[in-house]
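Progress against Task 2.4 (sequence-to-structure conversion) is shown through the following example record, which the project officer requested during the mid-term review.
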Amino acid sequence: MEQLQENQLVSELKNVVGDDYVLTSQEDLAVYECDGDTLDVARPDIVVLPGSSAEVASVIKLANSYGVPFTARGAGTGLSGGATTVNGGISLVLTRLTKIVEIDPDNLVAVVQVGATNSSVSKAAEKYGLYFAPDPSSQMASTIGGNIAENAGGPHTLKYGITVNHVNGVKVILPDGSATVFGGKARDCLGLDLLGVFIGSEGTLGVATEVFLRLTPRPESAETMLAFFSTVGSGGEAVSEIVATGVTPAAMEMVDQLTLRAVEDAHHLGLDRDAGAVLIVELDGSKLSIESEKKVVCECALAHGAFGIKWAATDAERAAIWKARKTAFGSLGRIAPNAYVLDGVIPRSKLAEAIRRIAEIGTAHSVTIANIYHAGDGNLHPTLLYRKSNKDEVVRVMQAGREILQLCVTLGGTLSGEHGIGIEKLSEMTFLFSDNDLKAMGWLHEAFNPDGLCNPGKLVPTLKSCGESGTRELLRYKVLS
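Structure tokens generated for the chain above:
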């Protein structure tokens, strides 16, 4: 962007949102140069923090009039580079839009602005015995807008589904600055499902500003189990058998030895450091149903060599068990300064095979891999640990990650369960989709975003340069070229 044009745009943006909410210094811009995918860095030219839907619309209209790309951003907890401004332009930060507009307990609906955090919605609904079911690990910080952009899930996806299953409607500012609503307070089923198209579109079809969320009644009771296994494979076999019995736990999460040791070193939760894996199973519903399901879960776990089985006796013990899972990614920072968190999905029946072959890929590339699994629904989070300052390590990590995603597809799975494609998996989209598939996605994208200014370089690769993303050189393409 030429300096004179940028100065003019900055002046007009300040007239819209106020001087304090337009950032241009290099120190300020550096804060917004990536999301949780810290491998790929691209600094925006301008950061704008609007305070209302009307201001969002005005900023987008200005971006259009200057031909400047814009990328919506929430808390920056995403892990696929979805909020990274690969073409520069405006980082449109929505964290001032935090209002819980309404909790309607009679209709089980919350109306919230997109900058509200995931956990704040549940806290606001708590007094009515309700909560918002999707629970990504970052739920204390991640925003509802980010959840919608990536169609986020979390440990309780197994029973309750992902974000799209809990949204009735979205107020959207389209890429030209006009406003519309997909769905509403009561989700309609008329015509094309534009709400379904929008959720998970990673901010490429427009910018959500307000959301109608579906709330869930809190279950009568919940019980949480911690069980240790000698190997990850035996834990995976127990998971498959539990599901095969017909029991549907609220969550089934597993971490390997490397991860549980990092968590134990960080938080001293009393985990067995000699175990090869730890499995967390949560059951919820009526007390009567839980009692019968507990018996089945224990039988399946013991049949596959579980030891040290413990059911939480208090809320504090249950919170400690979940702390072991929710802090897993952060605890890995004790092992290496950088981590590449993958997000492939495989059929549950292939879990043991996937675990074995991921280990083989890590060995082949001399890459340390910590494993964290949404084991119940086959959503794998192999976490490749490395030092970004070491180019050779970065190359090996990128190669290993690509092979793991290829493995997931080969086993009958897919590229992402909840983190999205962003810039991270653009090259790998051809593993799963044909040229015609990608063309169809491109046509839909163009219908909403004909000028390509709304979060360019994400989600849908161009066939001419599949995997190339944006005008600012990204490290992942530089090291692999």
